[in-house]
Design goal:
The chain is an alpha+beta fold. It has 2 domains: about 80 residues, Nucleic acid-binding proteins (OB fold (Dihydrolipoamide Acetyltransferase, E2P), Beta Barrel), CATH 2.40.50; about 140 residues, de novo design (two linked rop proteins), CATH 1.20.1440. It contains 7 helices and 5 strands. The chain has a 5-stranded mixed β-barrel. The longest helix has 18 residues.
Length: about 220
């Protein structure tokens, strides 16, 4: 790109209207972490940025840097996660994953590992082979590890079953390509959920609207 232009790899985590035809987006980028950008005219139907500046869109974004925000002028999107967005429950999981990533992401800090984690997690949800709850808790644990907040001594906590400690160890250390490839019994999964819910509540100083919606939906499905 020309003077002042940058090309960043990233994913749209949030999008909202700005003015009459523009769109304000929050991007998680490999090179610069979380950034805010404006896409001029993106809400016009004929705009080439219309489909590229919505949540879940992942690819390469061409931007110009301003004093307080970027301007997105073009994008080459390689993944829209359309199948995931068409599944209401899957889309809710995805929205929570992005909201949680938004909490930990920082501006002007390389975020390649976080972007890769978000990508493989959304891809696993979309493939619908691994149980959603396993993906969710593995994602939560690994994101908190990346954020420097997850208690590493959990693997030595003898109040937990050995299988639960082994599962936590896997979630903390496994390569991203194998993050979800662990099998647990229902009682172990329940113990993972209970402990991770307490850890998240204790260490994360905010609630997530998307998680409230997701948990409400799951409870509703369980009552049917």
């Amino acid at each position: 790109m020309g003077t002042g232009g940058v090309e960043l790899q990233g994913m749209v985590m949030k999008a909202s209207p700005a003015g009459e035809f523009d769109r304000r987006i929050t991007l998680l980028t490999k090179e610069r972490g979380k950034i805010t950008a404006f896409a001029r005219g993106a809400r016009r139907m004929q705009s080439t940025l219309s489909a590229a500046t919505v949540p879940f869109a992942m690819g390469t974004f061409q931007l110009y840097e301003g004093r307080s925000a970027y301007t997105c002028v073009a994008a080459d999107i390689r993944e829209y996660f359309e199948k995931l967005k068409a599944d209401y429950i899957g889309a809710c999981y995805g929205a929570y994953f992005m909201e949680f990533a938004d909490y930990y992401a920082q501006e002007n800090m390389e975020a390649g590992d976080m972007l890769n984690l978000l990508y493989v997690s959304l891809l696993a949800l979309e493939k619908d082979v691994i149980p959603d709850e396993r993906i969710r808790y593995a994602y939560e644990v690994r994101l908190m590890v990346q954020g420097g907040e997850f208690p590493s001594d959990i693997t030595g906590d003898e109040t937990l079953q050995l299988s639960t400690r082994q599962a936590f160890y896997h979630m903390i250390t496994a390569p991203l390509g194998k993050l979800f490839s662990f099998a647990v019994t229902k009682p172990v999964m329940q113990e993972i959920q209970a402990r991770q819910d307490r850890i998240r509540t204790r260490l994360v100083d905010r609630t997530f609207r998307s998680l409230d919606v997701l948990d409400s939906m799951i409870r509703g499905l369980g009552a049917e």
